[in-house]
Amino acid sequence: MNAKLVWHERTDLEHRRAELVRRMDPDERTVRYRAEQGTVTPEERDLLLELEGIDFLLGHGA
């Protein structure tokens, strides 16, 4: 079985990140706080996981 490579343009990743942040209620900071407290919804958890993946690809974070 061969691995499938997927290429993303930086601008596509940035647009997707902005879209994910817009979907967070009320904002990214609050959702991240709720994640630390263990009170996020399954949808918010999925948003955060995708956001973390995008941030990794963009070279954001520690």
Describe how the helices and strands are arranged:
Blueprint (H helix, E strand, L loop, with lengths): L9 H14 L4 H10 L4 H17 L4
Protein described:
With 62 residues, the chain is mainly α. It contains 3 helices and no strands. The chain has one domain. The protein has helices at 10-23, 28-37, 42-58. Helix 1 (10-23) runs antiparallel to helix 3. It is globular, with a radius of gyration of 13 Å. The mean pLDDT is 93.
List its salient traits:
mainly alpha; 62 residues; globular; 3 helices
How far apart the termini lie comes to: 33 Å
User: What structural category do the secondary elements indicate?
Assistant: mainly alpha
Order of helices and strands: HHH
Largest sheet: none
Number of H- or I-type helical stretches: 3
- Please state the CA-atom Rg, rounded to the nearest Å: 13 Å
- Which spans have pLDDT < 50 for at least 5 consecutive residues? none
Q: β content, as a range?
A: under 5%
The total of beta strands comes to 0
Number of domains: 1
Shape: globular
The mean pLDDT is 93
Q: Fraction of residues in helices?
A: 55-70%
Put the structure in a nutshell.
This protein has 62 residues and is an all-alpha fold.
